[in-house]
Fold these 3 entries.
Entry 1:
Amino acid sequence: MPGQVLGRGGEAKVCAVSLSRVAKLHHARVLADGKRAVLQLKVSKLRALSATTAVTQAGLANVVWPEASLFDDHGHFCGYVMRRVDGKTLHSILGDHAWNLRERVSIASQLARTFQGLHALGLAVGDPSANNVLVARSPGGVTAYVIDADSFQLPCFPPCRLASPRYQLPKVQARKAPFAPGREADEHALAFLSFELLLGGISPYAHKNGESPQENAAKEFFALAVQDSLVTDGPWLVRWQALPQQLRDLFTRAFVPSCGPKPTASEWVALLSSISVPSLWPDLQVKVPVVPAATAAYSTTPRRLIDRVLFWRNSA
Amino acid sequence: MTSVSNTHTVYQPIAIVLDVSPSMATANDPAFRAPIVDLNDALGCFVRDLSTITHCAVECMLITFAEDVVVECDFELASSLKFPNCSTRGSGTNLGGAIGRALDEVQARRDYLRQTGVEVNQPWLLTITDGQPNTNSCPGFDTRLAALIANRKCLFIPIAVGGCAAFPVLEQLCGAASKPVVVGSSGAGNLTFTELFSFLSQSIASGQVMNLADIQQSHE
């Protein structure tokens, strides 16, 4: 029997089942018009797939796979059980300075590995978005989990429902092409998510005198790489310029049309797992004041520094 | 009016234009509460729901109108916003003046946000009225509104309270693309303000483009 509701979205709600398991229960309208049978079959396939060695070899341990199907009192499929991940949504940490740049690179790198692994198995993420990734901290580092596995695109299954507009391909947002989940759409979303992570939440297409997010994406104008004077007010230009050149080149290829082939998940994996970045964004780095040892009231730990900068920024 | 922050990179402006002519203090059926009372409660819940949204910065403003037009609250982030308790006043219904003023405010806010470079979702203009306008201090507001709707620069959400008198007026402003939403007294089996505002906040929370017809359908 499902317990406390932990989250609710447009398609389903997630309830606690035990300390280590949660149930995803789909809303009735999501299961209407024959979609129940398709979703039941898809969950069953995903469950079977998750137990194969191919999944282990592809490094997909960070995917929250369905573990058992759930049925209502009439015996109709209504959702599934999965392991419980106690983390924050990626979206909620984008602008949170408590998550440092190295942790963000690690998250982006793990996401790229997951995307790469799914593509190697012939699958696609389907609905890649910052709300479908949970991140958790532990003494060993950060871990990024991909949830919403039932929106994965499987071969021989109808295309999944419409995905989060923000992460869709510019040509889809410009209404020049229909939404089609697959590798191309995933790779754009991966670049977009990585950019949001490493810059702190801004869209690559935001710029001065721009329009709505959809209209900006349709124009594919990447101000940071093209025209400094049109970059959005704030710390974005400083943060962009502080990124390693190889990373900026990859983002430029991803977001500027006719700038070479779009980067693949494998390219992101190769780069993100090898680059070195400072711990803090440059706009958060301050000179440590010289305090005589005898009068120092407290040690200037990085955490305290961040708090002091935030306090200063908020009071300014 | 708030400036932009580094924590939000997408903004969703919402202007609420509210009829506070004396008829809003009277329910069609005396057994039920007056629309203005239901509205005050529902607006409070609406702001509370909006303040929990994290994927964009939702900012609201409130304009009330009778024969005059008053900006009760300038654009403010939902997280720090508290709408005043609205009460009825005057005797006229200056719908055109109120919509014209709201369009000025929305346009100015949108222009400011665009200059800073943050992304601005299509502004929402919620117009809530229960009667026929009998004065208009802003001639040409309807043409201006129609152009903004046609160019997707404004999402017009007309709400006819009670339905009878206000519906044709708002229907004319909507154009062919949509129909006004009819809201009635709570407890009378109608779509209520609480349900309407709950639907609207969920639409923003989902990040999907709202279809106005879904509001009525979800109730039916």
Entry 2:
Amino acid sequence: MMNLFLTRLILQAGPSGDILLREGRMYSVLAVLLVIFLALVAYLVMTERKISAVEKRLNDK
Amino acid sequence: MGKILNIGYKVLAVALLAYILIYGLTVVVPAMPGLEESSRNLFYHVPMWFVVITLMTISVVQSVKFLRMSDPDRDKVSGVPLHADLKAREAARTGILFAILGLITGTIWGRVAWKADFAWNDPAAWWTNDPIIICASISLLIYLAYFLLRSSFTDEEQKARISAVYNIFAFATLIPLYFIVPKILPGLHPTSADSDAGGGSFIFMREGIDNTYRMILYPAIIGFSLLGGWIYELRMRWAIAARRLDEKEMSTGVAGFTEVNPS
């Protein structure tokens, strides 16, 4: 999803996309994307922990 | 050692993806004719296909492993055959996810690069009859049929065996669809036969792209591949745990995981 959002953003920028960089708007966008990215990583880490717990329980039985 | 590697590749994936996100969006990239700022999409669209090829390779390897494990005429190969089938299924599933992402990012890019004059609500703006796009769509349909085939069997052994054979066929079609047909036909992609690269992989050619692109694209390929590997690993471990849970519950006569959670 983040990837799609990124693509849309870049493409919407079009030929004059460097305006985003010049005016510093890219940094707000980047901050939002970093939050989404960190949320994705946190989700993967939490899922990993849950799976490890299930595996441990299965091995203990 | 195994645990360090297991954590290490995930840390590397996060570091590389953070790098391509930050540097890929803020670095000043040299202009590509006709693409301008949209050329940054190279860092997010191209790696998707590398992930697809990697995951489909894992999938076919697991299918072959399953067939070898379940062949009574061969020497015993260690491991549970049905687990190899689950690994093949999950690798193909994750591969399909990245193929869909690759097609969507490509479609949006194509809309800007090739169909800029079309209105956004014109369906023709979102599709181009380019050999690579057609071949990628065909390959996606072939892999979707793999899941359709799987769903038509109830017997686990039969499902695993027939879908493993089909998976080998599906992987074999990837080679002409990704590496031969688009490179011998004229098209709009820079890897087409009539492009400057003359059917070659321009991203690896000395004159293909500027080094600024390489500094982000190559880590992006590795980063997204590791992310794909991570997602695959989680899906595969979960599928195997669910199967083991089912087996345990069946042996005790209680409803199994898939009976309680059919999805």
Entry 3:
Amino acid sequence: MTAISDDGKARGGTSPNDNHAKALNELNIYDPETPSHVHETLDYARRHCPVSWSEAHGGYWVVSRFEDVKAVLRDDTTFSSSKGKSIPPRQPLMMPPLDVDPPEHIHYRRMLNPYFSRTALQHHEETMREACRTNIANWIDRGRFDVVHEFASAYVASVVARVIFELDDPDEISMVQDWVEGIHRVDDNTEASYHALIDYIKSLLGSRKGRSKSSNDIVAAIANGQIAGRDLSDTEKIGIMMLLVLGSLDSTRSSISDIIYEMVCHDGLEARVREVDLMRGDLDELLRFESPVSCVARFVTQDTLLGDQQLRAGEWVLVHIASANRDPERFENADTLDFGRRVNQHIAFGLGIHRCLGSNLAQMLIQVGFDELLQQVCHIRRVDHRPLRFAPGVVWHPVDFVVKFDRMA
Amino acid sequence: MYVTVDAEKCQGHGRCNSLCPEVFDSDVDGFAVVLTPEVPAEHEESAVRAGGSCPEGAIEVIE
């Protein structure tokens, strides 16, 4: 099996071009209706107006083609990250190094990169496996689970507590896991979880101050961190910690959930994921096909041409990574999940200086997660056949996605 | 077949190391290191795959 056609997506029907043009002109990634048509809308954009204007959020440029997305992400002088990464700007806290331009940017990355290299993360593999097995034990006797909340979110949050916070006390892990999940659930408790986690991070940074650096202790590295010859400020330390927490959970839980979604849509995919080494190509194709971080914003610092459009200083652009990864100019049969691709230059982790810091952590989480899951369960299938909704935003994920399964013999 | 990595372009994605660990390693910061500039015949296919899959276009494969 090398090619699987995309027959399972319930993301809208066919519409006349004027409807697509209207949808593009109003494209708002936070609109609950957007996930149902966004692939079609951006397909229309790539073919007819690859750099186009949306009136949403006070107006911004929609960038849809691979080459244009690449050009923006490569040119960190013209396209700045210093005003945040979302349109409209919505984050209460700056999060270096993601919100920092050169020349300062590299100093933060130099400090953090060693903790997120594959070599460094390999020390945590058994911890991740244990976190995943503990999670699976919570629901395996029920014969069904909610993919996003009971598996993906809980597993990833638990690994964040154990690996990034370096906790080993089960009660403390559970407490941090609850806050991390709480921030991402977006309900009445979101704000309380956010503030509780910030307070906890402050006390953790305080307690790790002065602790000598070890190859595993990311919090100690940040607590005692220096960049360009000066100590990090408390605000910077908290911002970095929050970036690690928020960046890990949202994207990775989405990716794990999307892969399970593809499994229930495509016969044979579960068996394939069980059998192959995901890291040798299949995971790249899964990430290309369903790119978890669908888009990223940049602020235009100087007048410039992008494609055939004149952009002005002070405007915003939103580059659609998920669209670039389905650009037929770059990927043959772009809307088909095809594990037979000879090369796969997908940019699911971005590119350029802001390339996802946690890409190795994410890939390990996915690999370990499916390794553990598929050792214990098989024949994963939906409990009903209602069309699945996807939550809108920068990172999409399925909503109320419950599956049942059989136990492995 | 020979491979080279342009250190100026490499951003440490690590994809070459995943796709062809016999030829590409990652250093302690995650950036690409070529283990064997002259690619053993049995790894040529995966080296080409790794080279063509680099998001930064940092790898040159000379056949």
